[in-house]
Amino acid sequence: MAYLDNVRTFARVYELGSMSAAARDLRISAAVASSRISQLEEHLGVRLFQRTTRMLNPTEQGQIFYAGAVRILEAVDEAEAEISDVTENPRGTLYIAAPLGVGQRLIAPAVPKFREKYPQVHIRLRLSDRRLDITAEGLDAVFILGQPEDSSLRIRKIADCSRILCASPDYIARRGQPRSSADLVTDGHDCLNLRFPGAPEFQWPLQTPDGVKRIPVTGPLECDHGEVLTGWALDGLGIVLKPVFEVVEHLRARRLVPVLPKEPPVPVQMACLYAHRRRQDPKARLFIDFMVDHIQRSLPEGA
Fold first, then answer.
1. Domain coordinates of the chain in residue numbers?
2. Considering the chain, what percentage of its residues have pLDDT values greater than 90?
3. At the fourth CATH level, which superfamily is domain 163-266?
4. Model confidence, pTM
5. Which CATH topology does 2-85 take?
6. 191 and 219 Cβ atoms separated by less than 8 Å
7. Do the domains 163-266 and 2-85 match in fold?
8. Which of 140, 5, 149, 142 is nearest to 69 (CA)?
9. C-alpha span between 260 and 281 (Å, rounded)
10. CATH number of 89-161+269-298
11. What is the spatial distance between Cα 95 and Cα 137, in angstroms, rounded to a whole number?
């Protein structure tokens, strides 16, 4: 297995562009990662990376070897998957990612039930509201809200999720209820927006009497954490656009109230993305099937 470990380490260093990042991803030390690359280079008789104090770039030989390394690793994964099919006893580790709200409310609570059924499958769950690169970050599946940017991935639709504009009663009492979507801009309402590096300019797609309009909104507060935005809305700091399932309890308790209920946001797709392979890892397929069923049963009616 030593050679395979070396190849797997090489692939992660190549994909992440960093020895330390690959080491963290593989849960080994940077020294071990470096040693594995050196052993592989000695075996092949070529340098796979050009190293400087600040840069790590693949050589021409490294670029050629990476393509073959990916095929090797996929073949091993498929062979192990076939064994799992035969034994009906899936094992190994799954790397899963999801937006914070989806992960906290829908996926994480169901993980213990999944583990009861498949105790030899380990779950590494990463929650982030930014878009993740499923290949570069070594993920088996990514749950998303919205449209995928990478068309090479397979997509499994879960649901169309209703969204809502909402604010605290204190904010509405202080600033007034917008009468139309145009008032969000003309009246200078404080709109709370989810922003992360590379995020596009903010436009809220609202269903108006004249059709869908994309309203350019601004505000003094932004964050890359959706739950922070919800907290700010509860504190009366502005209007937030959220999937209904994330704020349904606050709406029922009247801690948040709807804004522009006759011009609601366009629903957003919830889906699961996974890499296109000739044969999907059975444990990944089991996890996705389990979570899709759980999420569809757990979403509030109308959400």
1. 2-85, 89-161+269-298, 163-266
2. 53
3. Periplasmic binding protein-like II (3.40.190.10)
4. 0.69
5. Arc Repressor Mutant, subunit A (1.10.10)
6. yes
7. no
8. 5
9. 45
10. 3.40.190.10
11. 9
* pLDDT band per the 50, 70, 90 thresholds, residue 97: very high
The mean predicted confidence, pLDDT, of the chain is 87
pLDDT in tens, 24-62: 888 899 899 989 999 998 998 999 998 876 778 899 998
Q: Kindly report, residue by residue over 58-73, the tens digit of the pLDDT.
A: 999 989 999 898 888 8
Please give the full DSSP string across the chain, using - where no structure is assigned. Answer: -HHHHHHHHHHHHHHHT-HHHHHHHHTS-HHHHHHHHHHHHHHHTS--EEE-SS-EEE-HHHHHHHHHHHHHHHHHHHHHHHHHHHHT---EEEEEEE-HHHIIIIIGGGHHHHHHH-TTEEEEEEE-SS---TTTTT-SEEEEES--S-TTSEEEEEEEEPEEEEE-HHHHHHH---SSTTHHHHTT--EEEE--TTPPPPEEEEEETTEEEEEE---S-EES-HHHHHHHHHTTS-EEEEEHHHHHHHHHTTSSEEESTTSPBPPEEEEEEE---SS--HHHHHHHHHHHHHHHHHSPTT-
Residue pLDDT, tens place only, 278-301: 456 788 889 999 999 999 998 876
Residues 6+ apart with CB under 8 A from 107: 96, 98, 125, 143, 291, 295
pLDDT tens per residue, range 113-168: 999 999 999 999 999 888 777 877 788 899 999 877 766 778 899 999 999 999 99
